[in-house]
Amino acid sequence: MNTIPNRIFFTGAPGSRWSGISQNLEKLLDLNTSDRIAEREYDHKNFTGHKGAYFGRGMEFESKLNLEYLDSAWSNLEKPRLIKSHDWAYQLDEIKRTFPESWILLVYRPDILCYSWWHEAGGFNITYPNYSEYKHSINMYSEIMQQNKSILDFAYKQNAVWYHFTQLFFEKEFNKTVTFDSEIYKDCLISLIK
Question: How many domains, in total, are found in the chain?
Answer without folding.
Answer: 1
